[in-house]
Write a structure and sequence with these properties.
Blueprint: E1 14-18, E2 22-23, H1 35-48, E3 54-59, E4 62-67, H2 69-78, E5 82-87, H3 92-101, H4 108-122, H5 126-133, H6 137-147, H7 151-157, H8 165-172, H9 177-211, H10 214-240, H11 247-277
Parallel strand pairs: 2-4, 3-5
Antiparallel strand pairs: 1-5, 3-4
GO cellular component, one term: chromosome
Keywords: Chromosome partition
Domain ParB-like N-terminal: 15-101
Length: 290
Amino acid sequence: MSEPLNSKYEIGKIYSINVTELKPNPEQPRKYFDEDEIKALAADIEANGLLQNITFTCHENKLIIISGERRVRAHKQLGKEVIEGKYVEGDLLTLALMENILRSDLTAIEFAESVAALQKQKSCSNDEIAKLIGKKKSTTSEILKIASLPEGIRNDARTKPYMTRERLLKVARRKDAEGQRKVYGNLCLTLEKQAKDSQKSSEKSQNNKKVGNRFVNAHIRKIEGMATELNASYEKMLSKIKAELTDEEKQRLIAVLGNMQKTIQDIYNQHCQSLTAGRHEKQPIIVPRL
């Protein structure tokens, strides 16, 4: 008969565990894992190493992750074979719940579901669970109210860290599920609009910094308009010339166009020199008379 797996480990001791041997906790309250966050965590581990060990236990002759499933996933992404972990013992649900409740990065829904599951597991009153998690009774009642929201709302809010307890409590205070869904939907629309408006404001601010001040922009538009108007005026003049131009008229036209070309070229050269030199001081542009 083979030796039980848990006989190989001592409570509180650190072990190097092969990541392929570690299994997710089926009682884990956290159901959603952001892949971008795991990639960022993997990059941090690659740069700085594992700053906090995972915890694991033995259940039905398998090694189960109690805390640190994201760290295990990050190790797998990096191709690392082993991870440091501390061995603990206890029933899977209580271990996972207490681990989650003590964490600061849970969403409001994950925290509320953890508290509700722990209360059910231990069959305790609101007063007892409040003492267990170190919260006031009134706060605990609010947390449990959030945990009773319809599943669809909870699943959606689980992926949105900005859905705070205060916001979800406004939803939970509606007595019927349909009313809660309506309030939640309106809340989502409002927050999404605020996020978009904030992004647009930020982009506009960045664009203003890139393109310069309003005075410069106004003159750029004016020059663009002048170029269009000049081209239209020249086309109009050509269309109205019926007789052959005299030599004097030809010379005048050539002289005016030549002066215009030189003026535009001088402006162009001055700006190109200023921009390539990276100078920020204002330089006057001298425009010769036509």
